[in-house]
Amino acid sequence: MPEIEEVDDMDFDPSDFIDDVPEKVTAVSPPAAGQASLASNPASNRNISDDEYKQWAIIYPVYFNEARTHAEGRRVSKDRAVKEPLAAAIARGATQAGWRTVFEPDKTHPKDWANPGRVRIDLSDAKKQNPPIVSKRHLLNVLANYLKSHPSTEKDARIVNIEGLNDIDVHAIDSPRGWKMPKLVPNISPALKGPSMMENMPSDMGDLAAMMKAFQ
Q: Name one GO biological process term (predicted).
């Protein structure tokens, strides 16, 4: 099993690590028949209650995007950032490290609408691991190191299994001029070109479905 190595602290102010978007969390629960499901997600721990993980550290892919500035959402130094950070890859790394992890594929950072998905990690539990995680800064650095050595894959981009979207080209970005987008995004991204995308989006995807319709 690949190991996640420790790296140095980051080179900017710790206040940057206050979560950008405090919001109510929706648990990743088993889908009803015909609705969205997780194709292969060991990081989605369904026996964890909402109340238990709502205080966990929130990690968005934009924190590791080398194309972004700190003002645009990046939270690691540029030399530690990567081209195509995906939430599923972050969840994979967190799970392999042995941390208690919840993957939320339908949550989106407002500065990164094209790259949905986020991860919650139990920082208090991670601090008890060997080696321990000493802070959220340290946590982000360790994850950045993992993403450098284990880049996001197409499998990560297809982690959400929705009828009609399984074969969509996850590289076919419809990027508005001036937007900084990765070349690989989840198959539920509103930035992807695909005529059947809106028709097959389950109604229970909520805010994400509304966002996708807004960008038609």
A: SRP-dependent cotranslational protein targeting to membrane, signal sequence recognition
